[in-house]
Amino acid sequence: PEAITIQELANRMAERAVDVIKLLMKQGQMAKITDTIDADTAQLIAEELGHTVKRVSEADVEEGLFDVADAPEDLVQRPPVVTIMGHVDHGKTSLLDAIRKTNVVGGEAGGITQHIGAYQVKSPSGDKITFIDTPGHAAFTAMRARGARVTDVVVLVVAADDGVMPQTVEAIQHAKAANVPMIVAINKIDKPDAKPERVRTELLQHEVQVESFGGETIEIEVSAKQKTNLDKLLDMIGLQAEILELRANPNRAAEGTVIEAKLDRGRGPVATVLVQRGTLKVGDIVVAGAEWGRVRALVSDTGASIDSAGPSVPVEVLGFNGTPEAGDRLAVVENESRAREVTDYRSHQKREKQAARASGMRGSLEQMMS
Ligand code: GTP
Ligand code: MG
Questions:
Q1: Is ligand 1 within 6 A of the CB of residue 329?
Q2: What mean pLDDT comes out for the span 135-155?
Q3: In what ranges is there compositional bias, type Basic and acidic residues (predicted)?
Q4: pLDDT digit string (tens) for 327-362?
Q5: Cα–Cα distance between 363 and 368 in angstroms, integer?
Q6: The pLDDT of residue 135
Q7: Mutation probe of ligand 1 site: the residue of 88, 89, 92 with most atoms within 8 A of C-beta
Q8: Which of 61, 44, 63 is nearest to 4 (CA)?
Q9: Annotated binding residue at 227?
């Protein structure tokens, strides 16, 4: 049910809250500034104060922002987006670093200074692969809960000297719940106490049957330290991507997901965005969550300034007026007033939710005290 606090209603009309309360009292309703009134009452009050009311619903505001279908003939192949998951210390970061140092797109090994949480590498066959730097399981879940589907393939890292551990099991469950195919990288096989066979057996106990055990899940023995089988891993990711037939329309207004965002002292709000459909360009007007902005600059994963970013490309977006949140979905809109409409509505919704939560908390606190 739609509702608004008296304070919020007054703010939106640029009236004093006390005048709203007076009108409510005239109608026999006693209310405090923090109280919530329903949309019909709010409309009556607003009209009484001489305002014209335009009631918008979520459907009106969000209409056409996402999920406008592409014609099949407009779709072209796009790189797979891969997330590395696994238990603490099993070598996720080491594996990503090793892959990145040898296979960065553009090939400048050692020239990587930037960390943007996501980057592209080239597989031995020349195809691009986008990696998302371990967002952590909580972030993965949060993104999924928000309907942001960013991962095409999960690489599950299991250390051969440690075996399947609690977070390994968690990762398996995440991948299954999200219905994302998984490739198992049995890592640290250079270690004398490595027991890759044991890993395979333990995985079986969690309903993951690897290929060498007659199952469907690809497994590869790797060593991040000695850079063993990294090309093979990339090949397998490429193979998996082929099966998935990943496609997107690059010739449309961009859509994507915020992977991470921060407020930078010099540059202002900086959002790392994975573009998923369309092409994001400098000058575009974007909304993400309750924030909007005009794209002032796009920075690639190697720190280069670029003019545009297409499907599966991770990019830093500069120009937001505020800092969006990880998991927020980004969309390009036609103009500033549309951006304002969308983000005004969303920030209003956000405030209402926070207020509702706060008053709920107050309620339970009062109960506790009585
Ligand atoms: P968290 O981010 O803390 O969950 O850890 P992680 O999974 O990213 O592991 P990380 O890459 O930080 O590696 C943990 C430790 O294992 C480090 O000391 C690495 O040097 C070591 N390590 C990673 N891969 C290998 C490997 O292939 N062989 C050996 N011998 N050691 C490895
Ligand atoms: Mg790590």
A1: no
A2: 70
A3: 345-355
A4: 899 999 999 999 999 999 899 888 878 877 777 666
A5: 9
A6: 53
A7: 89
A8: 44
A9: no
Buried b (16+ CB within 10 A) or exposed e, 32-47: eeeebbeeebbbebbe
Query: Using a 6 Å cutoff on CB, does residue 94 contact ligand 1?
Result: yes
pTM assigned to the model:
0.81
Q: Compute and round to an integer the Cα radius of gyration of the chain.
A: 25
Model-level ipTM above the cut of 0.85: yes
CA 314 to chain centre: 12
Regarding the beta carbon of 191 and ligand 1, being less than 6 Å apart is answered yes
How far is the C-alpha of 160 from the C-alpha of 170, rounded, in Å?
Answer: 18
Tell whether ligand 1 has an atom less than 6 A from the beta carbon of residue 281.
no
CB 134 within 8 A of CB 82: no
92 CB near ligand 1 (under 6 Å): yes
pLDDT score for 60: 76
Atom of ligand 1 nearest to the CA of 223: 27
93 annotated ligand binder? yes
Check pocket membership of 190 for ligand 1, CB cut-off 6 A: yes
For residue 19, what pLDDT band results from cuts at 50, 70 and 90?
A: very high
Q: Residue 27: which pLDDT band, with cuts at 50, 70 and 90?
A: confident
Could you tell me the distance, in angstroms and rounded to a whole number, from the CA of residue 100 to the centre of ligand 2?
14
Q: Is 289 annotated as a binding residue?
A: no
- Is the pLDDT at 134 greater than 80? The verdict is no
pLDDT, one tens digit per residue, over 198-219 is 999 999 999 999 999 999 999 9
pLDDT confidence of residue 235: 94
